[in-house]
Hints:
The structure is a homodimer.
Chain A: E1 5-11, H1 13-16, H2 23-34, E2 38-45, H3 49-62, E3 65-69, H4 80-88, E4 92-94, H5 96-108, E5 122-124, E6 128-130, E7 139-143, E8 149-153, H6 157-176, E9 180-188, H7 193-205, E10 211-217, E11 220-229, H8 232-249, E12 254-256, H9 262-273, E13 277-281, H10 287-292, E14 302-308, H11 311-316, H12 322-326, H13 333-346, E15 351-357, E16 371-378, E17 381-388, H14 393-419
Parallel strand pairs in A: 1-2, 1-3, 3-8, 13-14, 13-15
Antiparallel strand pairs in A: 4-5, 6-7, 7-8, 9-11, 9-12, 10-11, 15-16, 16-17
Helix pairs in contact in A: 2-6, 3-4, 9-14
Amino acid sequence: MEALKAEIIGVGTEILLGQICNNNAQWMSERLAQIGVDVAYHQAVGDNLDRIETAFRLALSRSDVVIATGGLGPTQDDITREGIAAALEVRLVRHPEIEDFLREKFARLGRRMAEINLVQADVPEGAEYILPDRGTAPGLICVTPQRKRMYAVPGVPAEMREMMTGTVLPELAALAGPSALVSRTIRLTGIAESKVAEILDDLFRASANPSVAYLASSGEVKVRLTAKATTREEAERLIEPLALEVHARLPGFVFTTTDEELEQVIARLLDALGATVACAESLTGGSLALRLSAAPGASSYFKGSAVTYTAEAKRDILGVSQQTMDGPGVVSEECAREMALGTRRIFQADLGLAVTGVAGPDPHDGKPPGTVCLALAWDRGRQSDSFRAPGDREQVRRWAEQSALDMLRHRLEDQLRADT
Amino acid sequence: MEALKAEIIGVGTEILLGQICNNNAQWMSERLAQIGVDVAYHQAVGDNLDRIETAFRLALSRSDVVIATGGLGPTQDDITREGIAAALEVRLVRHPEIEDFLREKFARLGRRMAEINLVQADVPEGAEYILPDRGTAPGLICVTPQRKRMYAVPGVPAEMREMMTGTVLPELAALAGPSALVSRTIRLTGIAESKVAEILDDLFRASANPSVAYLASSGEVKVRLTAKATTREEAERLIEPLALEVHARLPGFVFTTTDEELEQVIARLLDALGATVACAESLTGGSLALRLSAAPGASSYFKGSAVTYTAEAKRDILGVSQQTMDGPGVVSEECAREMALGTRRIFQADLGLAVTGVAGPDPHDGKPPGTVCLALAWDRGRQSDSFRAPGDREQVRRWAEQSALDMLRHRLEDQLRADT
């Protein structure tokens, strides 16, 4: 059986004005993919009847399933109902039982219902409706003479998700039958996207299932393998050998084959080793701490971070020596090493991880923007590194963060290998 | 003159799979609106040549300007160049000067260039190209025989923004002529969205220009006033009296009438007072530090933060008393007060700001998830506060962060009033 082809239409001038981001489309797409429905197109249109009608007609001409979000509220600019009726060439019929539902809903909330809300009881002739738990806007389910399905759900994310989860996704999962699309994301750091693509080129040139996609962001490359099969297990089986091969070809660079964040990988390693870490940061301004403390239960492996934004704080709190400050300065591997030792000591942690540098845009302490110095200290050793990161302030911070965490990851992996 | 009608096309299967959100469309839409270009449609299509071509043809049939993002990279699934050439019915021509640019770019970064990168030197016949500062993917500018303009820019947000800001937006602003859509965002904290809407209801009920939109996120409400006029100045004049009235009705809650981040407002106040701040955080895990250090030049007012994730670190580094730890515990206003005093001392800052609490999902130290305790210490006093924040771990952290920064803002504003 061919997979169901779906299309998502975001309705609302606020999307086209850039006042809100069409996050609903992402959420819906991800869920539809999981039940084996192919999303082939997204559209967004404003609160304009002609354009809404045209968008629905186009979608119905090329997709099996159309799901619209937004424009179901009670105000004058909520005209998705009218747009659907126009595209289907039917009239809107007011449903007294929805009127009753609305009146009761408002009464229960102790609010007076403005008459304007009753437009929400209008349903295209022949269509079904979905009564909401949250909010007041009913959803719509229309089936065309060609057996195409058109859904309309509210634009408010929580209300949209309620109807998708409660009604739309179960209906479509039943129609889609046993089919699964599974993605596995392998994430790498310390290597350029084009280099990754070159090394994997032959592996993927001929592979349609799983398909492969590359995504690059500051300090990281993602390789996403997506397989389609009738069951989840079968799709996983298609992905597994390729994922292993990617890992084997890029040892050291791959930090996860299951889409974990770098800090999650580190948390796992620290847990396995029963070890703790503390940080000392200036350039990264607290982002190492933020990432290492993101997960619930982080306090079992993360002790804290000294965010020392001044030379005095590096000296007074972390014990960086006057000699280092007067000599190589606060932007140096020497300083990073002393910071790593200092934070390890004051937090009584097994590992101390430190970053200093120049985020920019201006030079600092005689060093150019982008200069990053890292160091790691542990019971039996220490290491350090320095480099120039590309990009603006935000990118430099991201590179520094990523490189520091990756230094820690490598150390923990070595340790775990040595222990076992 | 009719406004230019624009359409944005996001290219990439990862968008349709819901693996990434099409945030680029929002960013571009917002900027296009500001220069008076009407965005009438968004589309998103996958990495499929036929569908990309069809999307471009549809867009060219109904819009004056088409801007595509994504699919310009060096890998096999980057086929936006081919899609544009097909829609325009021209061939792709390799440009040796782009090849040279790519080789030099890689050489400058000290990296070997994979041959695969050279596909980025392919340009549809007759089109112009935009060489990138960031990244390696050139952008494209095509003008059709019907004088419609088609741009392609990379999907990586920083690279997209560079070309939009440097080339596409200036070109379109010149074509659009004198027309301006100006938005002013007034941001409030410490008050619920529905309360804001109620207080401002009469003010906006009849106002179409400026129009008003409310947006709520954790710990913050935004009120956006949008005015359309032939010049920027005229639009600003329409907005000004309403912005002032909003401020007058919600004194204390409004922290900016010019869309600044709360930390920017604080930076301005600290600069004006010549004062410095240091933080002590556990619950917020470094995010206070990150926000206060985000701006270039932050080191003139931000001294640092002690991210103390354990009771021992609170005691050893910040000097929280054993009495407090044994009595009210590490999740208490007493502890927050001692943390604030401690960080002020160790960083030698004028103000010490502290947060402790329970991010969740589990209780900690006998206190339920969502418990937030804040304190601020300065030369002549201190204050503290505690409350239960709603939501999950991330929302609790965001509320805590926002409330702590707002406590600091109020203190600084009082100080500035006292000084003048």
